User: What shape does this take?
Amino acid sequence: MSERFTVLGAGIIGVCTALALQRDGHQVTIIDRNEPGTGCSFGNAGIIHTGGCIPMATPGILKRVPKMLLDPEGALVIRWRYLPRLLPWLFKMLAAARPTRVEEICRALAHLSLQARSAYLPLLSEAGASALLRPRGELYVYRTKEAFDAEAWSMQVRRGFGIPVEDLDANAIRDLKPALSPNYQFAHYQPQRLYGESV
Assistant: This one.
């Protein structure tokens, strides 16, 4: 039976949800205050992140917080007047960083991310946009050996799910990306051949 649905948000998730409902014979309206494909979808640069199986909360995250807060270009910013409101969320984040919980989350994220490309293919084909998907692998670059080593755990987790990860030195980085700044001396590389494979 056909029903009417309203989807809030015209990013990649909202559009895919609307298309899935439409394919099932429902009438769908998408509402977004901005242009389609902006917001988070635009900020993510259109990347289907196959290696996205590592949560934000990981073992040892608490030790890294002070350095992250002092980094003006860091990913963590806290407006201190909001700290009382944030405390319940921060406690939940710490609970989610327990090794056993992280393992469960990684497994769930891997199941989703490794099948993302194959899930998008029918939609792209129907839209005549298959050529827009260009598998190119993922390159993680670091200026220091310390930063490179700090990601060893997350790369090992990816390998555990069958995601190939290559360790690159400065010469290998230049061979792969000649225009990249020579300041980057170390890298982890996930080759494109993985894209679309499942766990």
About this structure: The CA atoms of residues 10 and 118 lie 21 Å apart. The two ends are 35 Å apart (CA to CA). Residues 1-46 form one domain. The chain has two domains: 1-46, 47-194.
